[in-house]
Amino acid sequence: AWTTASIIDETVDAIRAQVGDGRAICGLSGGVDSAVAAALVQRAIGDRLTCVFVDHGLLRAGEREQVEKDFVAATGAKLHTVDAERRFLDALAGVSDPEQKRKIIGREFIRVFEVATADVLAEETVDFLVQGTLYPDVVESGGGSGTATIKSHHNVGGLPDDVEFTLVEPLRALFKDEVRTVGAELGLPEVIVRRQPFPGPGLGIRIIGEVTADRLETLRAADAIAREELTASGLDGEIWQCPVVLLADVRSVGVQGDGRTYGHPIVLRPVSSEDAMTADWTRLPYDVLERISTRVTNEVAEVNRVVLDVTSKPPGTIEWE
Ligand code: XMP
Asked: Which reaction does it catalyse (predicted)?
């Protein structure tokens, strides 16, 4: 029978067979797939795996700590964190267009990852790159597997030529829910194993307008409160994901105590979905909405209004950008 333990044993054996006494590198995103893939490879080859985590400054509250502390404590994995917030913010300065933001974030991410890889390669020879490809991705892409190239054309130094890696994809036979079960069995923290989908460009595409450090801080605080209250209400299982969006270029008048405020609205975008292709807005109980609204407007100084998005997909997308 396909027990979780037997899936883990067979996968670990397969990784050992593939990697032999070689070395591997794995980029962590903070999400469940890369974390479980890395945990399996760590179990198979131990310290011959190096994990690389790029903090682009667009993560939600606590996510870096979940990787640096909780993931490392649970797996014992060797982790190399790159602090790249300044670099991403500089690259995003003055940019409001969503596709432009995505392009810049994607480009910077690859460059930073390549620099980090060059650092690792300066100390050891690495032949394998771990990726958290799932079964549905394998089917969609026609089943091919193979290699990935890290390019040396950005003057990163340390990379003599383009470096080709053989891919290790330990999740190729698994669906998302199986990945979560395997992750739990491997002892990964609940916050990582249960994490709802979060886009690669992170909070960068949840600030409508230019991305700045102050705006990120505001959105991070509001998002943390919304997530805390949704989890406390026991509704995580019904919600596919709940983007919290900062309308940074919009201000509205409010009143607090004796004073007039002129702050920003945030939008709650709770959706229910099977696969993110279509989605319906989640009918959250009014008392949960009230708690989020009261706390956000009390605790986050720049936010004086909380609004609810009641649009299905289509016609609305899940994200606002
Ligand atoms: P939309 O907004 O298109 O989102 O309805 C569908 C799903 O994809 C996620 N999403 C992204 N994920 N990079 C990602 O890795 C992106 O640029 C991106 N844009 C949207 C979104 O969170 C939802 O789960």
From this structure: XMP + L-glutamine + ATP + H2O = GMP + L-glutamate + AMP + diphosphate + 2 H(+)
What are the pLDDT digits (tens) for 40-66?
A: 999 999 999 999 999 999 999 999 999
Task: Tell whether residue 13 is among the known ligand binding residues.
Answer: no
What is the position in ligand 1's atom list of the atom closest to the CA of 243? 22
Domain boundaries, the chain: 4-193, 206-308
Report whether residue 184 contacts ligand 1, using a CB cutoff of 6 Å: no
Query: Which fold does the domain 4-193 belong to in CATH?
Result: Rossmann fold (3.40.50)
At the top level of CATH, which class does the domain 206-308 belong to?
Answer: alpha beta
> pLDDT digits over 139-170, tens only?
888 877 788 887 665 555 555 577 889 999 99
Contact 267, 234 (CB under 8 A): no
0.90 exceeded by pTM: yes
Whose tokens are 């997308």? That residue is: 317
Spacing, Cα 267 to ligand 1 middle (Å):
17
